[in-house]
């Protein structure tokens, strides 16, 4: 096992606590593999009634190290691998996506406390949970268009199933939303003050069979949702699956909010935005989550070999100049042929598959 996770069973509640505070609990391949092994073991253990997923507090109480649930995956490793043979990156995606799928089909209830930053990989391990608890500290985003990747970890499934065009807006702009928005959209099933969480977890551990009723009873009324207030604009202006149509709608609208969206989109990878819009259209049609993850793995294997990923990570993560030079540089230069190539099937021996224990 790994010290990057704290794993225990407490009165029938299997607990998995992410424990990389200096990296905002970003997932490594080792963490994903250990979570899979643990969840598979608990799947066969009748003494485990439910699974609780959260992050460990900072050991020294430093608030800078207590910012949240999970900031994503190990981007630095992925970028380093992408500069070479991509083998480590492919292994990470393959393992992470198997974890996402395992959580999605898991028979026992999973409770994810998304208290703090929830991005990328953090979305992938919490969205499939049966119960998802947001707080006033929750910040949720799929920011992949800013680093030339794509909204993966199940984004192709979950984003198009959000109300209206919320998913298209989140996927293209990388917008950061709060806990109240998560509840309004349906990303969270419950909302409560963060200072209640310890008491809620203690009550669930004392009575795991009553966890649904406990969460309902302990929930709070959230503040107004900014997404809800803006929903009509989002649904109207992000209605199209074609990027140029979205840009034209925003330009024609001309409001201050529309201009802000245009300014944000101008900083994002045009390739990634077109990938995300097609990915969502295809994901909306899937009836099996495994088909979506196979599709995303294909995209991942192709995208990490394109220049935008390494350049996006350079600009945002390493050099932090926030001035990526995208290639292709404009939406018009991102051809349908290029996008087709990023969705192309892999050789049969390289295709993603669910865990052997979940097949059949």
UniProtKB/TrEMBL annotation:
CDD domains in alphabetical order: crotonase-like
Reaction catalysed by this enzyme: 3-hydroxy-2-methylpropanoyl-CoA + H2O = 3-hydroxy-2-methylpropanoate + CoA + H(+)
Top EC class of this enzyme: hydrolase
Gene3D superfamilies in UniProt: 2-enoyl-CoA Hydratase, Chain A, domain 1
UniProt EC number: 3.1.2.4
GO function term, MF aspect, one: hydrolase activity
Residue ranges occupied by any Enoyl-CoA hydratase/isomerase domain in the UniProt entry: 13-343
Record's keyword terms, sorted: Hydrolase
Record flagged with keyword Hydrolase: yes
Parts forming coiled coils: none
NCBIfam families, per database record: PRK05617.1
Protein's name according to its UniProt entry: 3-hydroxyisobutyryl-CoA hydrolase
Species per Swiss-Prot/TrEMBL record: Sphingobium tyrosinilyticum
